[in-house]
Design goal:
This protein has about 260 residues and is of the alpha/beta class. The chain contains 9 helices and 10 strands. Strands 1, 2, 3, 4, 5, 6, 7, 8, 9 and 10 form a 10-stranded mixed sheet that branches. Strand 6 and strand 7 form a beta hairpin. The longest helix is centred in the C-terminal third of the chain and has 26 residues. About 40% of the residues are buried.
Length: about 260
């Protein structure tokens, strides 16, 4: 395909030495090669930085950035976004993987749709990388639909800075990726999805996203941060709009993966 511009891939890193090689190798294998990989390490205590540094020596498109104190995935991502030089901003966490054709397929799709943000379905896998199921995306999402529940996997998101500008994540400790997607949709109104899976999301027992109950207060905080709602209005919207939508989504995914 034609070169549509540089893609800046945003990757936060924290104690990811066990998985980061798979992540980087999946990016090196992309059929679309005009990319830079910006990995910000959030004060890992394992040998993540050493592993990443070896890749930096082999490929100049890979850069390792380091935070001076542990600040969370949102801050790490923002640090990489700040350094990004690409027209397109894409996201891949340090334990996830992409299909080789992800960038090529998605950039072509964005050109055809003339859209500011795109995403795709994705596979789930266990800690050992064994496939477990699939999360099927919807054809499109609007600000209204996405605020009722985050139905877009961050590892599949690409947004176009020429259409929406450079969008950062709010300074929330958790759920900041959902908040960022809402901010993008405030600029472009609609995002479009590719039904075929283009990435693997690794399910880990101790991950932040695995503990859904602990995320409730952060879901409510997103409404306060992005829409300026009161805590009461945010809580009511979460209970009577978010939760019913979330329950229906989970039931649908369970059916698909049976």
């Amino acid at each position: 395909m034609n070169d549509l511009g540089l893609v800046s891939i945003i990757t936060p890193s924290y104690n990811c030495a066990k998985f980061i090689c798979d992540t980087i190798e999946s990016i090196l294998a992309q059929t679309y090669q005009n990319w830079e990989l910006l990995i910000t390490d959030d004060c890992s205590t394992d040998n993540s930085r050493d592993v990443i540094s070896e890749y930096c020596k082999k490929d100049s498109r890979i850069r390792l950035l380091c935070l001076s104190e542990n600040s969370g995935a949102g801050t790490a991502r923002n640090n990489s976004i700040k350094e990004a030089k690409g027209r397109f901003i894409a996201f891949c966490d340090s334990d996830d993987r992409w299909y080789p054709e992800k960038l090529e397929r998605q950039l072509k799709f964005m050109t055809e749709k003339d859209c500011g943000m795109s995403y795709s379905s994705y596979m789930t896998c266990d800690e050992n990388g064994e496939p477990m199921g699939i999360v099927v995306c919807r054809h499109s999402e609007t600000l209204s639909s996405l605020r009722r529940d985050d139905k877009i996997g961050c590892l599949t998101v690409i947004y176009d800075t020429e259409k929406v500008g450079k969008i950062y994540m709010p300074t929330l400790r958790k759920r900041q990726d959902w908040a960022m997607k809402l901010k993008v949709l405030q600029k472009c109104n609609v995002a479009f999805g590719i039904k075929e899976p283009l990435a693997y999301y690794r399910l880990r027992e101790n991950s932040i996203s695995h503990n859904k109950r602990a995320l409730v207060k952060y879901n409510i905080a997103v409404y306060q941060e992005i829409f300026g709602w009161s805590k009461i209005k945010s809580t009511l919207y979460f209970l009577f709009a978010f939760m019913p939508t979330y329950i229906v989504k989970k039931a649908g995914l369970k059916y698909i993966n049976q």
